[in-house]
Each structure stands twice: as structure tokens, then as C-alpha cells.
Amino acid sequence: MIDHVSVGVSDLERAARFYEATLAPLGLSRLVTRPAAIGFGKNYPELWINFRPDMTPVRPEGGVHICLRAKSTGEVDAFHAAALNAGGRSDGAPGRRPHDRVRYYAAYVIDPDGNRIEAVTFPEG
Question: What's the rounded mean pLDDT across residues 80-96?
Fold first, then answer.
């Protein structure tokens, strides 16, 4: 249903460093570099960061929430640790999330501009 997602950032180089480190545990890497945009993915750019020079900081109750699929709980853990090491903030430590319809394992981070990024997997058992 969705081909790709774009996230606005106020500092392209800072965001590039953050997303390169954070997405690597999920098998995503920088595939395209343009003057004001960088695309990440496995085979083609699925997640873009776009430079917005006049971007105001994202309000805590606003912004975007993007959830990325991980293959394992270990990938979710590594995603969270990499994001924190790259200047992100935790918005929910890795762990099981019981839900009324499905049980999943996820971690939530906030990028340097305030965008929320999640990694999720659905372990059996």
C-alpha cells in the first residue's frame, strides 16, 4: 500500500548520521544522496529524509510516527541502542507489548528533530 515515506529534518548531515546508524540493524542503508534528500532502503529508497531549512522543532504531541519491521527481537534491541548512541531519545524501551488483538515486541525512539520511529517484530509464543 505504501511505497515510501519521507521525514522532514532541519539538519541533513546530523539526520543522515542518525538514520544511518539507527537503520543499519534493520538491514537498511543509504542508497541515494541528493543535495536536499537522502534515501534509505534495502533495494530501493523506502525511507527518505528531506532537508527543511525553515523547519520548526516538532512539538512533543505532533510529528510523524513511522514503524519499521524487524526480523527479530535482537534487531529491535540493536535499533534502539543504535538510535540512542546516535543522538536519539528513547520513547519506549524494547519489550513485549500486549495488545487486545496481537502481541508484539517493539522499541520507540525520537530522532533529533522530534520524529518518532518504531521497530517492531512479532515473535512466536
Answer: 97
Read off the amino acid at residue 78.
A
pTM of the model: 0.94
Determine the distance from the C-alpha atom of residue 38 to the mean position of all C-alpha atoms in its chain, rounded to a whole number: 14
Task: Say how far apart CA 23 and CA 82 lie, in whole Å.
Answer: 8
Question: Of 22, 18, 20, nearest to 10 (Cα)?
Answer: 18
Neighbouring residues of 118: CB distance < 8 A, sequence distance ≥ 6? 65, 66, 67, 68, 92, 106, 107, 108, 109
Q: Is residue 121 very low, low, confident or very high in pLDDT (cuts 50, 70, 90)?
A: very high
Alpha helices in the chain, H assignment, sequence order: 12-23, 73-85
How many CA atoms lie less than 13 Å away from 57 in the CB half-sphere? Answer: 6
